[in-house]
C-alpha cells in the first residue's frame, strides 16, 4: 500500500541543532518556477546570527547538499542558495514524483550543515540516508515522472498536485488521478494543447488587470477565465470564492474544459511558497513594484520583491511576451535583464524604454495627448482615448490608465483584435459587478461615493490623489487598517489616504484584522496622524465597523459631496448600504 500524503508528510522527523545562531524556519516543496529557479524540488529558509556568517553557511551547504543528493541517488539534481540580510534560502532540485522526499533530503543536508558550522556531533549518516531512501521508494511514481518528461519534450503544460495531474489547458486538457495515470504512449497527444494564458503580478493593479483582460476576451467572443484574490471565474460562472492568486486557483481554472483564454493573478506568497504552476504561458505582466508584505521568505527589500515578482518570466513559452511598466524603475531594472521578448508601456511618449523599443522594432505602448498608442514593431497605431475607458474616470485616474495599457498589451500578445480591445476596455466599468472593491462608484443622496480595497501606501495614494481632483462641495474619508502593520506603516497608509484632502474622516475598527493588537490601537494611530496633518478633532469620528462608518457618512452626505471609503472588511454590507441609498 502506497503511503498517503499525510503519511508522507510525517514519515520522518529529522532534527536540527538547537542553537539561536542557526534557525531552520521552514522547509517546503517547490512545484514550479519561483524566486530561485524554474525547477521542481524543495527549499529551506534559515536565519543566521551571532558569529556565523551567511557566506560560511552557503559554502558548507553547497558541500553537504551535494553530498546528500548524491548519497540518495540523485546525482543529476542540483543545489543552490540565496543569501539575504539575516539568512539564506537553501534549495535542491528533485524529481516531480518525489517532492516530499526532497524536503527530507533538504533537511538531512541542513542537519549536517548546521552541525558542521556549530562543531557538534550529527546523527548517523548511513541510517538517515537509508530512512530517506525508504520514503523515496514509497513516494516514487514512475508513470508521473515519465508523463512529465514527455510533456516537457512536447512543450505541453503539465499541472500536478497531490490528487490530480493534467496536461494542456482548458479545451485542450485532460486530467487523471495522480495514482491512476495512463502510460505516456496511451495519452491522446493530438487532442492536447496549451491555451493563450497570461500571468499578472505586481504590487498593485493585478485584480483590475485580470478582469480588464477577461473583458477583452469576452468581447472577442472567447470563453475567458480569471483567478484573483476574490474568486476563480470562467465566463459568468464563479467556480469558487476566496483568495485564489496561487497555484491552486490556476490549476482549478486551467483544468476546466470550457476554458479558451485565461488570465491568472499571481501574488507574492504563492511564488515564494510553492512556485508557479505552469511553464508554457503566452504572456506575463509586472504592473509595478512597491514595498508591501516584506520580511517573509527572505524577501526583505523592494529589490528582492522585484526579483520574486519577475519569476513570472520563467513561466513563458519560448515565444512568450513579457509586458512591463516602463514608468517603474525596479520593473525597468529587471526587465532589461529578461531573456524573453518585452513589451513596454508608459504614460510618457518620451520614456527611454518606449523610445528604444520604437527605434529597435520592439513592442511598446504609450499615452500621448490623451490617446493610447500601440507599436507592433513596424507600425504605430492609435487604439483608443484613455478617457473612453470608464475606469480611468475621464482620464483622471492615471493608475487605471496604466492598467488599461497593460491589459491592451496583454491582449495584443495573445492575438486579440483591436475591435475586441476597444469593446472590452470601453464597456468595463467601475462597478462591483465588473471590478469588486476597486474604485467602485455609487450615487447616494446626490453625492458620488467610491469604495476601494487599497491597502498599501502606493495604492492608497494613487486612489486618493486621483479622487482629490474630482470636483465636489465636501469630501468624506473612511479608513481603517489591519493590526499586523507597524505604527509607522499605519502612519504612512494614513498620510497616503489624506492625499484625498478630506473635510471629514471616519476612522473604523477592523475587529477581524486586529492580528495581535487591542481594539482602538490602530484607530489611535490613525487619529494621531490625522491631527498631526492639521485636521481638527471636530472633523474626526470613530465607528466600530466599516458598515457603521458608512452609515455615519451617509447621514451627512448632501448633493455634490464626494466620499472615498477605503473598505478592507465587510465590503458586501457596505455595498448594500450604498445601493439602498441610491
Describe this entry's structure for a reader.
The protein is α/β, with parallel strands linked by helices and 582 residues long. The mean pLDDT is 92. The protein folds into four domains: 5-139, no CATH class; 155-191, no CATH class; 197-427, UDP-N-acetylmuramoyl-L-alanine:D-glutamate ligase (3-Layer(aba) Sandwich); 440-580, Protein-Tyrosine Phosphatase, Chain A, CATH 3.90.190. 35% of the residues lie in helices and 23% in strands. Helix 2 (54-71) crosses helix 3, helix 6 (206-219) packs across helix 13 (418-427) and helix 14 (457-468) packs parallel to helix 15.
Radius of gyration: 26 Å
Q: What ranges have pLDDT less than 50 throughout 5 or more consecutive residues?
A: none
CATH topology of the largest domain: UDP-N-acetylmuramoyl-L-alanine:D-glutamate ligase
Strand order of the largest sheet: 11-10-9-12-8-13-14-15-16-17-18
How many extended strands?
24
Approximately how much helix is present in the residues?
25-40%
Beta strand %: 15-25%
Q: Looking at the structure, what is the overall shape?
A: globular
- Tally of domains: 4
Q: What CATH architecture of the largest domain would you give?
A: 3-Layer(aba) Sandwich
Average pLDDT works out at 92
* CATH secondary-structure class of the largest domain: Alpha Beta
How far apart the termini lie comes to 63 Å
Largest sheet: 11 strands, mixed
Structural class: alpha/beta
Supply the number of helical segments: 18
- For the record, what is the CATH homologous superfamily label of the largest domain? Mur-like, catalytic domain
Amino acid at each position: 500500500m502506497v503511503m498517503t500524503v499525510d503519511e508522507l508528510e510525517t514519515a520522518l522527523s529529522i532534527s536540527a541543532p538547537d542553537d539561536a545562531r542557526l534557525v531552520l524556519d521552514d522547509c517546503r516543496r517547490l512545484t514550479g518556477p519561483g524566486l530561485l529557479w524554474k525547477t521542481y524540488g524543495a527549499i529551506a529558509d534559515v536565519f543566521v546570527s551571532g558569529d556565523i556568517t551567511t557566506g560560511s553557511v552557503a559554502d558548507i551547504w553547497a558541500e553537504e547538499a551535494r553530498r546528500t543528493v548524491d548519497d540518495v541517488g540523485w546525482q543529476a539534481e542540483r543545489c543552490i542558495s540565496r543569501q539575504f540580510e539575516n539568512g539564506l534560502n537553501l534549495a535542491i532540485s528533485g524529481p516531480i514524483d518525489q517532492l516530499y522526499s526532497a524536503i527530507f533530503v533538504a533537511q538531512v543536508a541542513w542537519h549536517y550543515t548546521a552541525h558542521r558550522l556549530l562543531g557538534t556531533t550529527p546523527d548517523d549518516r548511513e541510517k538517515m540516508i537509508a530512512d530517506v531512501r525508504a520514503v523515496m521508494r514509497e513516494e516514487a511514481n514512475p508513470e508521473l515522472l515519465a508523463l512529465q518528461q514527455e510533456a516537457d519534450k512536447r512543450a505541453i503544460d503539465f499541472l500536478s498536485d497531490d490528487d490530480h495531474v493534467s496536461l494542456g489547458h482548458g479545451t485542450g486538457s485532460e486530467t487523471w488521478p495522480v495514482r491512476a495515470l495512463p502510460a505516456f504512449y496511451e495519452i491522446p497527444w493530438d487532442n492536447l494543447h496549451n491555451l493563450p494564458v497570461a500571468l499578472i503580478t505586481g504590487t498593485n493593479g493585478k485584480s483590475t488587470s485580470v478582469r480588464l483582460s477577461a473583458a477583452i476576451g469576452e468581447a472577442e467572443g472567447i470563453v475567458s477565465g480569471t483567478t484573483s484574490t476574490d474568486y476563480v471565474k470562467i465566463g459568468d460562472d464563479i467556480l469558487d470564492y476566496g483568495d485564489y492568486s496561487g497555484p491552486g486557483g490556476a490549476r482549478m481554472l486551467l483544468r476546466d474544459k470550457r476554458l479558451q483564454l485565461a488570465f491568472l493573478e499571481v501574488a507574492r506568497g504563492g511564488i515564494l511558497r510553492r512556485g508557479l504552476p505552469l511553464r508554457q504561458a503566452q504572456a506575463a505582466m509586472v504592473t509595478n513594484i512597491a514595498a508591501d508584505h516584506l520580511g517573509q521568505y527572505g524577501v526583505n527589500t523592494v529589490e528582492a520583491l522585484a526579483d520574486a515578482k519577475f519569476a513570472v518570466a520563467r513561466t513563458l513559452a519560448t515565444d512568450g511576451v513579457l509586458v512591463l511598466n516602463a514608468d517603474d524603475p525596479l520593473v525597468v531594472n529587471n526587465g532589461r535583464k529578461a531573456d524573453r521578448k518585452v513589451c513596454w508601456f508608459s504614460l510618457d511618449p518620451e520614456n527611454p524604454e518606449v523610445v528604444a523599443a520604437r527605434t529597435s522594432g520592439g513592442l511598446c505602448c504609450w499615452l500621448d495627448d490623451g490617446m493610447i498608442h500601440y507599436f507592433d514593431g513596424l507600425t504605430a497605431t492609435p487604439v483608443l482615448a484613455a478617457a473612453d475607458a470608464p475606469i480611468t474616470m475621464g482620464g483622471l485616474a492615471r493608475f487605471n490608465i496604466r492598467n488599461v495599457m497593460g491589459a491592451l498589451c496583454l491582449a495584443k500578445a495573445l492575438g486579440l483584435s483591436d475591435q475586441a480591445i476597444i469593446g472590452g476596455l470601453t464597456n468595463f466599468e467601475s462597478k462591483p459587478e465588473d471590478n469588486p472593491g476597486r474604485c467602485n462608484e455609487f450615487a447616494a443622496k446626490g453625492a458620488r461615493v467610491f469604495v476601494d480595497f487599497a491597502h498599501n501606501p502606493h495604492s492608497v495614494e494613487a486612489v486618493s490623489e486621483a479622487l482629490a481632483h474630482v470636483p465636489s462641495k465636501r469630501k468624506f474619508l473612511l479608513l481603517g487598517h489591519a493590526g499586523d502593520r507597524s505604527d509607522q506603516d499605519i502612519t504612512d497608509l494614513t498620510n497616503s489616504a489624506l492625499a484625498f484632502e478630506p473635510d471629514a474622516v471616519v476612522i473604523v475598527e477592523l475587529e477581524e484584522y486586529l492580528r495581535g493588537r487591542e481594539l482602538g490601537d490602530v484607530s489611535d494611530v490613525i487619529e494621531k496622524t490625522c491631527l498631526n496633518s492639521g485636521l481638527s478633532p471636530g472633523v474626526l469620528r470613530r465607528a466600530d465597523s466599516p458598515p457603521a462608518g458608512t452609515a455615519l457618512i451617509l447621514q451627512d452626505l448632501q448633493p455634490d459631496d464626494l466620499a472615498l471609503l477605503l473598505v478592507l472588511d465587510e465590503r458586501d454590507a457596505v455595498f448594500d448600504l450604498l445601493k439602498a441609498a441610491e
